[in-house]
Amino acid sequence: MTTIRQLDAPSKQLEDIHTRCFDYGWSEGVFADLLIKPHHRTYVFETDGEIVSFVVMTVVAGEGEILTIATDPDFQKQGLARMLLDQVIKTLKAEGAESLFLEVAIDNPAALRLYEACGFKKTGRRKAYYSRKDKPPVDAHILRLAL
Ligand SMILES: CC(C)(COP(=O)(O)OP(=O)(O)OC[C@H]1O[C@@H](n2cnc3c(N)ncnc32)[C@H](O)[C@@H]1OP(=O)(O)O)[C@@H](O)C(=O)NCCC(=O)NCCS
């Protein structure tokens, strides 16, 4: 059975997925701190009670910002991040939010395709925004979705 829900308690599964997806994955403590910060939300996609994809974001004064999103590598390319984002977008629209922002590394075509398929447009660029192991930092595109 699959479910999308807002997370209300810390989960080690977020750290496990994140560290497998990024050069510098976030620890369980980072996710736990974000969970209790005002204006922060974490949505998870679960399959049979296991978190397999998630998004961490803020929503302030009608403006959303995605801080991170990841799908367990064993579950990628099955449409999970798309379903999760579609649900987040639907929720924000219902709340009357106006826009959703995020940054994506210019060397991450998979994520860029996902966001463009959801309707995000490029609005700017941040120089040397993401650190990389054994490589120079890379720029980020700033993307915005009008809700
Ligand atoms: C980016 C990421 C979250 C996508 O998760 P996912 O659950 O595999 O994505 P989906 O299966 O929902 O794919 C949706 C769309 O994204 C694009 N996409 C996803 N993975 C892709 C890949 N490996 N190559 C090319 N396009 C890809 C496609 O357009 C896809 O739609 P399609 O299957 O109809 O062509 C996942 O690859 C991931 O966790 N990557 C590591 C972490 C990361 O880079 N996060 C984003 C930081 S900004």
From TrEMBL:
Its EC number is 2.3.1.266. Keywords: Acyltransferase, Cytoplasm, Transferase. It is found in: Cytoplasm. InterPro entries: AcTrfase_RimI/Ard1, Acyl_CoA_acyltransferase, GNAT_dom, YpeA/RimI_acetyltransf. Residues 2-147 form the N-acetyltransferase domain. It catalyses: N-terminal L-alanyl-[ribosomal protein bS18] + acetyl-CoA = N-terminal N(alpha)-acetyl-L-alanyl-[ribosomal protein bS18] + CoA + H(+). This is [Ribosomal protein bS18]-alanine N-acetyltransferase. It comes from Asticcacaulis benevestitus DSM 16100 = ATCC BAA-896. The lineage of its organism: Bacteria, Pseudomonadati, Pseudomonadota, Alphaproteobacteria, Caulobacterales.
